[in-house]
Write a structure and sequence with these properties.
By secondary structure, the protein is α+β, with helices and mostly antiparallel strands. The protein has one domain: Carbonic Anhydrase II (Roll), CATH 3.10.200.10. About 10% of the residues have low confidence. GO terms for molecular function: carbonate dehydratase activity; zinc ion binding. Its EC number is 4.2.1.1.
C-alpha cells in the first residue's frame, strides 16, 4: 500500500514539475515574441517596458505639441540648405509592418547647421505625430537624413487634404504592398516639388518616434503643410497599421525654435 502511495505521489510530482516547466516555457516564448506595435499590450505607452535597451523612457522624446506662442523666433540664416535634385533614385519600397517606407540610393542631401546629412528614407504616419497648437493633421511624412558620423536629421512635413498631389500619386503607384513585402523601384524622383526651401519651420532636439527612440535627432517640422487628396491619404492609410502614430511627449524644458 505504501509503495502504491509513493508511486502515486511520484507521478503527481513529475506531472507538476512538467506543468511548471511548460508554463514557464510558454511565458518565456510569449515574452520573446513581444514586439512593439501601435495597439494593445505593445502600443506606444508600453514601448519602454518591452524595448529594454531603448531610450523610449528618456526625457528628450518625440513627437511633441508645438505651441507657437512659446517658441523662440529666429530669422532664417542659411541654417538649412535643401539640396534635392531631379536625378535622385528611389531604391525600393517596403511595408515593414509599421509604415510604408521608401529607401533611396545615394544622391539627395541637406546641409543643417554646417553639417551634411544624406537622405536615406521616407515613411509616413497617419494621423500626424507632431501637432502645432494642438492641431492634428491627417498625415505626416518623415524624410530621414543621416550624416557620415551617424547623426540624424528628420524633416517632418505635415499634410492636409485638398487637391491631388503628383508626388503622392507617384509614391502610391507602387501600392498596394502586403505586410513584409519589398518592391524594387530604381526610378528617378524629384523632391524639389515639395518646395521645402520656401517654408517656415520649427526645430528642436528630440528622438526617433519609433523604438529604439534614440535621442540623437535634429527635428525640423515645417509650419506650412503640403496638400494631397483625400483619396491619396486613404490609400496610404489602407496599406499601414491603423493609427501608426506615437502619443505626444513632454517637452521637459527643451527650447523649440521657429525659423521665419
Amino acid at each position: 500500500m505504501k509503495t502504491a502511495i509513493k508511486l502515486l505521489l511520484g507521478i503527481v510530482l513529475i506531472f507538476s514539475v512538467a506543468c511548471i516547466k511548460a508554463k514557464h516555457q510558454t511565458i518565456v516564448e510569449h515574452s520573446i515574441d513581444k514586439h512593439w506595435s501601435y495597439e494593445g499590450e505593445t502600443s506606444p505607452i508600453h514601448w519602454a517596458e518591452i524595448e529594454k535597451n531603448s531610450d523610449c523612457d528618456g526625457h528628450h522624446q518625440s513627437p511633441i505639441n508645438i505651441i507657437h506662442k512659446d517658441v523662440d523666433s529666429v530669422r532664417i540664416n542659411n541654417d538649412l540648405k535643401i539640396q534635392y535634385t531631379p536625378s535622385t533614385l528611389l531604391s525600393e519600397v517596403e511595408n515593414n509592418g509599421h509604415s510604408i517606407q521608401f529607401d533611396f540610393e545615394p544622391g539627395d542631401s541637406i546641409n543643417y547647421m554646417g553639417k551634411t546629412f544624406y537622405l536615406k528614407q521616407i515613411h509616413f504616419h497617419e494621423p500626424a505625430e507632431h501637432r502645432i497648437n494642438g492641431m492634428i493633421y491627417p498625415i505626416e511624412m518623415h524624410l530621414v537624413h543621416v550624416s557620415k558620423k551617424g547623426e540624424i536629421t528628420v524633416l517632418g512635413v505635415l499634410g492636409e487634404e485638398g487637391e491631388e498631389s503628383q508626388l503622392f500619386e507617384f509614391f502610391e503607384s507602387f501600392l498596394p504592398l502586403e505586410n513584409g513585402a519589398v518592391k524594387d523601384i530604381h526610378q528617378k524622383i524629384d523632391l524639389s516639388s515639395l518646395f521645402l526651401e520656401d517654408k517656415h519651420y520649427y526645430s528642436y532636439g528630440g528622438s526617433l518616434t519609433t523604438p529604439p527612440c534614440s535621442e540623437n535627432v535634429n527635428w525640423i517640422v515645417f509650419k506650412e503643410p503640403i496638400v494631397l487628396s483625400v483619396e491619396e491619404v486613404l490609400k496610404l492609410k489602407n496599406n499601414m497599421p491603423v493609427n501608426n502614430y506615437r502619443n505626444e511627449q513632454a517637452l521637459n524644458g527643451r527650447v523649440v525654435n521657429y525659423h521665419y
